[in-house]
Amino acid sequence: MLLVVVAFVVAFVLLLYMISPLISPKPLKLNGAHVVVTGGSSGIGKSIAMECYRQGAFITLVARDESKLVQAKKEVEKCAINDKQVVLCISVDVSKDYGQVESVIKQCQEKLGPVDMLVNCAGMSFSGKFEEVEVERFRSMMEVNYLGSVYPTRAVITTMKERRMGRIMFISSQAGQIGLFGYTAYSPSKFALRGLAESLQMEMKPYNIYVTVAYPPDTDTPGLAEENRTKPLETRLISETSGVTQPEQVAKIVVKDAIVTMGLFRTIALFYLGSFDSIVRRCMIQREQAKAADKRE
């Protein structure tokens, strides 16, 4: 029976691989294209901008910290393949005021032309047990991780529809596919991106606009370093089972628009659920045993 199941899974994966060229859109030529990357001052966003620049794109970096943006601009410019390429930096909080975001997108389109590809990388992470997370965190997670992608997308969509072309990418997380211990504030905000992307794709496909969602695992970024400071034991142990990915690796996959590959991540992730549950149960038992020992003393 087990062999039958394994054979079925393998056959399904091979089928996806074979038909993906038939159902996937034609690759977007990045040479000369205008790519907007939110959260582009560091981490995955900066690496994606660099990867696109290596392929001849014009880049608009959007982030809150102006000094980090200036530094990121210098790093991206080193990846140029011709002297016509331009990197534009705009400092704005994409999660707060839609009017400001719309104005920023209009500004960058006036300078570098219509947006061919939008990569929504702006985001933040936080881990903690549900009852110990400040209520304010739940609101801020949804604002940054969800609305911070809704606003830029809304700002570019009209022009893309008029031109009958475009790519929109959302950077979610493995925690946006399966709910994990310690991510009760973070996971829902990343799950929301999947719902948005799938719904939006249905609306945009007739206009030759394609939407992609990436679900990278823990990635070596400043955000991860900050998150690790407060991670519960269970969350840390779960994270250790999958290791840490480099942002350059994630960038290469995202830029290739590997829809099928990201779909496989979902299948692989489900196999980890059993071991994750075991880690949580083991930690709970150890904690209860420690409490019982304290009481006896």
Automatic annotation (TrEMBL):
Reaction equation(s) it catalyzes: sphinganine + NADP(+) = 3-oxosphinganine + NADPH + H(+)
Metabolic or biological pathway, per its Swiss-Prot or TrEMBL entry: Lipid metabolism; sphingolipid metabolism; Sphingolipid metabolism
GO BP: 3-keto-sphinganine metabolic process; sphingolipid biosynthetic process
Keywords from the UniProt entry: Endoplasmic reticulum, Lipid metabolism, NADP, Oxidoreductase, Sphingolipid metabolism
GO MF term (any one): 3-dehydrosphinganine reductase activity
GO CC annotations on file: endoplasmic reticulum membrane
Compartment(s) where it occurs, according to its Swiss-Prot or TrEMBL record: Endoplasmic reticulum
InterPro entries, A to Z: KDSR-like, NAD(P)-bd_dom_sf, SDR_fam
E.C. code: 1.1.1.102
One Pfam match: adh_short
UniProt record similarity statement: Belongs to the short-chain dehydrogenases/reductases (SDR) family.
PANTHER family attached to this UniProt entry: 3-KETODIHYDROSPHINGOSINE REDUCTASE (PTHR43550:SF3)
Protein's job: Catalyzes the reduction of 3'-oxosphinganine (3-ketodihydrosphingosine/KDS) to sphinganine (dihydrosphingosine/DHS), the second step of de novo sphingolipid biosynthesis.
Protein name per its UniProtKB record: 3-dehydrosphinganine reductase
Species this chain originates from: Hucho hucho (huchen)
